């Protein structure tokens, strides 16, 4: 079998891993902006129709700026909102292709007008701090966004939630974070029962700009662990992850690009079913994306 045929066979078998909830749609067309494989009814851009409008809350943040970048590269109309309203520290031509505006999730009046005509909202709002702050930023802020988007008729909503590892006593450490995420997921279920998607990644790695001249390359730390867990296989790793305390070490870290692409795909493609996409399915999507990229590179040779 040629290298290309082997790569394509690997790609097909990885695709078969993705479950019937439409998860393969998370990765389809991710390599090209205008995929010819789009399903009927999909909100993917076509050359004649106006591209879908996606509003990204937390667009200046680590995950949010990657979501904006992926969505802009895919040809969507992207509006990145944050409390400051300024572009992120990240640089690149894509930054100029995104519209940046001010919006505080807790103050619907500050962003109501920005939701007009939006096809989807992606919320990357979250964070740590005191217990009350964790509850406010992960819970109340996202609940307000979900309720407001529903009230003005935005059809789809994607929320970047989090996988909570099986560590005894974690509730005492980050109880506000956990309860906040749960409250936001509950609001999503209530207000977007048919078109709300919550992603639950574990640790997310990538290049994280912390000032204009300092970027943390988190991949150096987490990529080796991800590769090790991929070798072990998602099913075996998932079993180990259920073991209290040590299990946390078996939750795969994910590249920020994977989470961002999955969020964008869930926002525009109705084949991605409503509900929770957990870290294990995201990991399978990451494998699928890597294999697709390898197959495409091999096919180009
Ligand atoms: N990084 C990880 O390893 C990881 C893992 C699992 C899950 N997650 C989840 O992924 C999401 C994004 O994480 P991240 O690492 O990208 O965090 P981040 O860089 O700190 O970004 C969080 C964003 O939330 C925004 N925000 C906070 N309060 C807001 C409000 N009231 N209104 C509007 N925006 C508000 C901030 O915007 P401004 O301050 O610019 O206004 C910031 O851009 C979070 O929900 C996090 O829990 C992250």
UniProtKB/TrEMBL annotation:
Gene Ontology MF annotations: protein-containing complex binding
UniProt feature coiled coil, ranges: none
Gene3D superfamilies xref list: NAD(P)-binding Rossmann-like Domain
Residue ranges annotated for the NAD-dependent epimerase/dehydratase domain, each copy included: 54-208
Gene Ontology CC annotations of this record: mitochondrion
Signal peptide location: none
Transmembrane feature ranges: none
InterPro entries attached to this UniProt entry: ComplexI_NDUFA9_subunit (IPR051207), Epimerase_deHydtase (IPR001509), NAD(P)-bd_dom_sf (IPR036291)
PANTHER family, sorted: MIOREX COMPLEX COMPONENT 2 (PTHR12126:SF16), NADH-UBIQUINONE OXIDOREDUCTASE 39 KDA SUBUNIT-RELATED (PTHR12126)
Protein name, UniProt field: NAD-dependent epimerase/dehydratase domain-containing protein
Species the sequence originates in: Chlamydomonas schloesseri
């Amino acid at each position: 079998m040629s290298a290309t045929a082997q790569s394509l066979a690997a790609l097909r078998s990885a695709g078969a891993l993705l479950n019937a909830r439409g998860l393969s749609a998370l990765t389809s067309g991710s390599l090209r902006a205008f995929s010819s494989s789009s399903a009927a009814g999909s909100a993917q851009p076509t050359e004649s129709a106006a591209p879908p409008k996606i509003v990204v809350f937390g667009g200046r943040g680590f995950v949010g700026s990657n979501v904006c970048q992926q969505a802009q590269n895919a040809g969507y109309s992207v509006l990145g909102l944050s409390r400051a309203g300024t572009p992120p520290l990240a640089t690149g031509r894509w930054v100029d292709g995104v519209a940046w505006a001010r919006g505080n999730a807790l103050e619907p009046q500050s962003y109501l007008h920005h939701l007009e005509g939006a096809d989807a909202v992606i919320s990357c709002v979250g964070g740590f701090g005191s217990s009350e702050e964790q509850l406010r930023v992960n819970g109340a802020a996202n609940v307000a966004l979900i309720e407001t988007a529903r009230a003005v008729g935005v059809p789809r909503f994607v929320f970047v939630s989090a996988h909570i590892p099986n560590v005894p006593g974690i509730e005492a450490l980050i109880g506000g974070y956990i309860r906040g995420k749960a409250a936001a997921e509950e609001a999503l279920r209530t207000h977007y029962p048919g078109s709300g998607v919550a992603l639950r990644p574990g640790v997310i790695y990538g290049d994280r700009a912390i000032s204009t001249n300092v970027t943390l390359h988190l991949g150096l730390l987490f990529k080796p662990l991800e590769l090790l867990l991929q070798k072990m296989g998602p099913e075996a790793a998932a079993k180990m992850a259920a073991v209290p305390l040590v299990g946390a070490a078996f939750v795969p870290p994910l590249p920020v690009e994977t989470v961002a692409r999955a969020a964008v795909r869930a926002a525009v493609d109705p084949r991605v079913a409503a509900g929770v996409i957990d870290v294990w399915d995201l990991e399978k999507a990451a494998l699928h994306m890597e294999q697709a990229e390898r197959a495409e590179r091999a096919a180009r040779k």
